[in-house]
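User: Hey, quick favor. My workstation is busy. Could you predict this chain's structure for me?
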Amino acid sequence: MSGHPMTDAAGNEFTPSATFGQEDGRREISLVFIGDSFVAGEGDDKALGWVGRVMARTQVKDAVVAHYNLGVRGETAGGVAERWLRESPARFEGVFERRLVVQVGHADVAQATSIARLRLNLANILDEASSQGVATFVVGPPPSADPEVNNQLRHVVEAQRDVCDRRGVTFVDTFTPLAGHDQWESDIAASADGVHPGQAGYGLIAWLVLHHGWGEWIG
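Assistant: No problem, here it is.
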């Protein structure tokens, strides 16, 4: 398996989003989704979240795909940086093509994680995955109903985008297109906590993921 090395601003070389070959004409893919309550689909009465909706529309020819949802409420980037190393190996064992999808942000804002620390934690996830030949894909946090939280989330999204761009990792911005979106805002307004959407909101996140690099990344 091989990627195309890139060099970041500090002169460090990384191999982003590993590419994979096929053996015997069939691909076997282990796809791990890890992150916070949005990954877990909290608030969705259908229990699908955006992950379930994306996978329902993901068809990879001549491939066996196993996907695992490891979303945990309140997870920060620092938590994911530690947890993926513990929980992913069992899902990746014996599989040639290993892929990791990450979404964090809201818990980092809630816990007042500095932007510098958030950048470092996300970079550590992507760099360690790259060193292990695991392809990565990052989904940014969506907006909430709280204007102050959204002001902070804007900085989080900018930081995540930059970290991913430096490494050639696909980043899907869900915040910008959903901020001020009528359907999203009505879904959030009707939610129990003003944070997690229902079916419509998760459908919007899934649409953004599916139409912003998912097909190209998964092949």
